[in-house]
Amino acid sequence: MRRTTALLTIAALLSACNSGSTRQEAQESRDALAKSNAPGRADAGMVSQMAAAPAPSAQASDPSATSLPSAHAVSDSVVSSMIIRTGQASIEVDSLARGIGAVRALAGRVGGYVANSSIVAGTDQTHTATLEIKIPAAHFDDAISGLQPIGHLESVNVSAEDVGEEYVDVAARAVNGRKLEQRLIDILGTRTGKLSDVLSVERELARVREDIERQEGRMRYLRTRASLSTLSVTVHEKYPVVAGTGSGGVLAEAFRQAWRNFIGFTASAIAALGTLLPLAAIIGAIGWLVWRSRRAPRPAKEVAP
Description:
alpha+beta, 8 helices
């Protein structure tokens, strides 16, 4: 009997110790959570509700939140590389087909590709082609250097846009949005109030997730733009001194052009007669009527006796 009583006493003491340690751990979690939230924030009400709820474990956290780097890490490692570089170049070549092939080969050598292209090769037009190349940012300078062997390099323009500050700002807002999302999920897990309150929290959670998706999409866009530079290359054949000389040389072409101008003037004059003749007929008829009314004999005045 005494042995049974001793065993019950030991079990009660162990249970009390475990419950005390559990309460102490819960209190420490609530204190750490309360310290991590500065006073005066807009979500102070949510923080007070979270303080009363048990702290979630690291494994229960949203796994997507760990995919976002911290603002400090972003500012140190990414800002220096978030530069969007674009360039335009003009090259004169002897053959348009060979020039286009050389530009495509250059894009392949530097690990890029031709995104857009346009070609003008009409009979009476200067043969010209414009190719827009997407190049890895690390090989942009190699692509610029590779333009010289293609032909006569006429001009090269390079511009750079630094988007590092915008990227850091968007990344910080995305990280804060993930934290707010997790807090709202915790509130939903412990909420036992009215249905309207639960629906209100769910609407706020949907809005927060929409903002996070928008910010993460902007981050992906900036990373893609910074990782791929754009180079627009225009290749053209030599511009002719006199276009369309034909046979007989420049003087013969000048006489032909003069004859075409004379024929064009004559045709324009004939076409204008279709408008001028009816207008002249109308004006002549009106003038004739006015002249005749003035020449009509007036009745003689009677002389008084």
